[in-house]
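Memo to structure team: turn this sequence into structure tokens by end of day. - J.P.
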Amino acid sequence: MDDYLFRPDESEEFETEERCHILEIINDPSETKLSLARARVLPGVTTAWHRLKGTTETYYILDGQGLVEIGESMQKNVKSGDAVLIPADTAQRITNTGETDLLFLCYCAPSFGAESYESLE
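Reply from structure team:
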């Protein structure tokens, strides 16, 4: 692999306990400033309430539609082309409200690590 080119392999997508499928695009242990993944949520599925300790996350919706919930009071419908900023240490989840897979990019700063994930369920 080239140090500057990342080409994810679709066969490496995995399902999480959070009820979504993740394909890591960039998450290099030597580069801890950021990570990028593609998330896929099946129709009718709501991901688990969770937060990322010390990590800000941005969703960029590629395809589909959903309802994103951030903290106790923010609920917004999202669709292709929308971006959502989720502050570090803030409860979050997303529901696929459409009839096709909800696809979105997850940009984390600093990079996502299992130690930053905290289930709230």
